[in-house]
Amino acid sequence: MRWSLTTAIVIVLAYSVALILVDEFIAKPWRRRRWQQRAARGDAEARALLERARKREPALEE
Amino acid sequence: MVTGSSTSEEKRLLYWLGERLIDYRLPVTLAVALATAFFAYCAFQLQLVTSFGELLPQTHPYIKIHNRFAHTFGGANNIMIMVEVKDGTIFTPEVLNKIWRMTEAIDTVYGVNHNQIESIAHRTVRYLKVAAGGTMRATPVMLGEVKTQEQAEEIRRIVHNAENIYGLLVSLDDKAALIRANFIEGRLDYRRIFEEVNQRVVEPFRDANTDIYVAGEPRLYGWVYHYAGDVLLVFVLAYCIEWLLRWLYFHDWRGALRPTITGVIAAFWGLGFIYLIGFALDPLLLVMPFLITARAVSHSVQMHDRYYEEFARHGWNKRKAIVAAFAELFVPTFSGITTDALGVLVILLVPVVMLQKLAITAAFWIFAITISELLLNPIVYYYLKAPEPEIVLVREGGVFRRAVTAAVAAILGPRGRFVVVGAWLLATLVGAYFVRGLIIGDPTSASPLLWPDSAYNVSHRRIQDKFGGVEPLIIVAEGLDRDAMKDPATLRRMERFQRTLERDPSVGYSFSLADIIRAVNSVFHELEPKWGVIPNNWVDIGGLFFIYFSGSPPSETAKYVDPSYTTAHVTFFCKDHKGENIRRIIRRCKQFIHEGQLEDLGIDVEERDGRTVVASLSPHVRWERAGPSWMVSTAEHAGEGPFRPGDRIVRVGRTPVGNLQSFEAAMSVETANATLIEFGLERDGTTTDATVVAPWKAVFKLAGGLIGVLAAANEELFRNDVLMNVLGFGTMYVIVLFTYRSFAAPLFLLAPLLLANLLVNGYMAARNIGINIHTLPLVTVGVGFGIDYGLYIVSRTIEEIRQRGDAEAAVRAALVTSGKAVSFTALSMTFVTALWSLSSIRFNAEMGSLLALWMAISYIGAVTLLPVLLVWVRPRFLLREAARAESGS
User: Fold this and answer.
1) Among B68, B317, B689, B781, which one is least packed by beta carbons within 10 Å?
2) Element containing residue B196 per DSSP (H, E)
3) Is residue B606 pLDDT above 60, yes or no?
């Protein structure tokens, strides 16, 4: 199969966008839900992790 | 330079710099974006081009000879087209007409030298025809298309009686004919030549009974360009897999994107620069940009990993994390980039324009990583949303982290250390065993650029089988005066040269003016075989040349001899271009030329105590005085000459002489164009000068043709290979020395690299990959591979030892933090680089595999041998940091 440069660029861009969308809208919410469910079930590790994650310095988004 | 053992003041400076980059993010971004846009525009103008002249070491004496005579005697860019019939012979009207039309078609291909086409159907291939009345004239073998079988039989009779055709352009079994065409170097357009040969010369004439095979350098490069599109497939696959791996590693798309930004910006700068300095990309060097981008991505992964770590450490404060990651990794990143860039620059030593351009562009490209990775990095992070803290925390307990921690425990455990050192010792022995077989030049007869079963290599092999040898080595016989080529002694020497070299198993056959004169003399004497000799005097020889060449224009005869009969050539058609065979053939040529000169001078020399001494004198060479000089003479009164047995030759011309080797070199240099040769002779403790009139009419000069130019390239590579390695490692030593302000630190970092180098060279030898003009830059870049890994680990160890005070704990901490990112980078990069093995271009596939192996070995050395050495030896440059930390606390 012989590809042109344009085809290659289009493929990598489309792939990158697809991966970003999968990460933002599927993978991350799923991961977060899973940890929250574990914490709700009383998993100490999950609770500690979420608690530590919430301890932010005030200047997070400067 | 700010160093890995930087003081707190220097660290403060880096933190300050990180802050200012964020403060002034708009002007910095604007400046970088404008420059990147400009370079990107230039990058898209780039084309894939191979300039044959730039592949040659132009200062080498062989190339100078090649350049002077390529346009007349033939260069290195020949295409051979073999027409082979399955049934019958080529001597039928149908096949001969096919050869005729193919010959006409090749004459229309772009860039062909119209006077250097050889085929029984071309005007320049002639035979001597005796006409009524005893007149003779050289007539083309075919004057037009053949209409009857009788005409075809007549052509067969002509071919069988012509020494310059039978076996050279028609195979001895009459089943194949060869069309050989030379292309003008300045007009080589490999893609166009490839297409036009296919469309005009091959496709229309191939049928059930006729096979057509095409070989030669322009064809080979044509195939390389044909397959060059593979690079896009490899690029897309590598990109997609790398993105996926980075996403899985960082648990966030930003981790996949950030290294891409670095790689793309550096690539635009690098490719744009290549265009700006008037260079083009060679399809055989496409692995190189890939490799540099891989390094850019590698630095970026380190930075992103550190950013996560600092983000957690600074209580999810993005700005603090950005600045800390920048300041803490500035030193190893900058040192790694500088080492890589300066390491590549050592390629400048090889006087090959393409390699020198490559060295400059690769160094610039690598330095461009500084812009995209260091200058822009804090700004990019500033604009990107920070990762979710959960993600950062989850990663810390992930599978990869746990695997790395377990591996570190095993490596640094009491048994693990012995296993590591023992394994490396064993690997060193294996590498040292195989590396002895490493070859400069090509190790195989087929082209190593393409796979053995590729269409090109099948054709090449078939033509070699049928015609014995097709790769020319042109030795120029340059006369000291006009008409030198009519001198019987010169022609006999040429003939003897042919017979001597033909004994070499790699030489198929040869051709020179002597063949023409013998054939013409034989025809002149009614084909009596006993007259197939070189006449004894100038007049007869001149007459025979007149008969043969009188009907041909100078443009046609120039491929045999120049119009003044001053210069001609002996061409040897070799069976392959293996590095060792080229070296042997060239050595035999030099030996023949040197021995011939000594024979003409009537002396025999030997080496005594490292000096060149006249051993004996020939009774056949007699001398007389000609003013202040000596000349060989056949006069009655001629007698002894300037030489006496026992004389030490201390000088030839201006070149001092020591042993026999230096004498041979001095003779080669000083007799090149001289009619008078000065010898410094030491006799009975006193030195006298003797000036001798050159007793020969012509001097043989090396070397043109494909074999000649490859010999020159191989000699240059051999001369510079060791020096480049020494300078490459020397550069790394100096940079690491300044980075850590320690003479010992570079030794720890370079030890795994040296061993990796040894192993990879051993692998090259075992896999029959020679060092040549294409492999050299990749091999040189590969040398510095592991240094980045080592720099990150040692810098982190220094950071950790300042806090922990214990060397072993510091090394462990460095391995599970920086070592983790190193492991991810090395493993993922090794995997994607190995994707090159999918390429249809064997060279790219093998180079990809080789570099993947190099990355893997360098990585293993950096995460096993280096930490074990640090823990065992506990070098002072580490311990002093611990002491500094204690005194500080």
Assistant:
1) B689
2) helix B190-196
3) yes
CB B318 to CB A62 under 8 A? yes
Which residues of chain A does B243 touch, with a Cβ-Cβ cutoff of 8 Å? 15-16, 19
Whether the CB of B606 is below 8 Å from some CB of chain A: the reply is no
Which amino acid is present at B239?
Y
Measured between CA atoms, how close is A40 to chain B, in angstroms? 16
Contact B522, B528 (CB under 8 A): yes
CATH pick for B1-45+251-395 out of 1.10.760.10, 1.20.1640.10, 3.40.50.10610, 1.10.287.110:
1.20.1640.10
Taking the C-alpha atoms of residue B881 and residue B6, their distance in angstroms, rounded to an integer, is: 10
Chain A environment of B393 (Cβ under 8 Å): 49, 52-53
Q: At what angle do helices B253-276 and B25-43 cross, to 10 degrees?
A: 60
Q: What is the mean pLDDT of residues B578-601?
A: 89
Q: Which CATH class is domain B397-436+741-889?
A: mainly alpha
Residues B559 and B70: their CA atoms lie apart, in Å, by 10
Rg (CA), chain B: 34
- Across the interface, whether the CB atoms of B389 and A2 are under 8 A apart is answered no
Predicted pLDDT of residue B446: 62
Model ipTM value: 0.88
Whether residue A31 and residue B229 make contact (CB cut-off 8 A), yes or no, is no
Residues of B in contact with A31 (CB under 8 A): 251, 390-391, 394
pLDDT of amino acid B284: 72
Residue B595, pLDDT above cutoff 60: yes
Statement: residue A42 has pLDDT above 80: yes
Q: How far is CA B278 from the centre of its chain?
A: 21
Burial group, residue A16, by CB count within 10 angstroms (0-12, 13-18, 19+): middle
Residue environment code for B838-869, b if the CB has 16+ CB neighbours within 10 A, otherwise e: ebbbbbbbbbbbbbbbbbbbbbbbbbbbbbbb
Say whether pLDDT at B185 is over 50: yes
Q: Is B114 within 8 Å of chain A by CB?
A: no
- Calpha distance B384→B258 (Å, rounded): 9
In whole angstroms, give the CA distance from residue B386 to residue B304.
11
pLDDT for the residue B5? 47
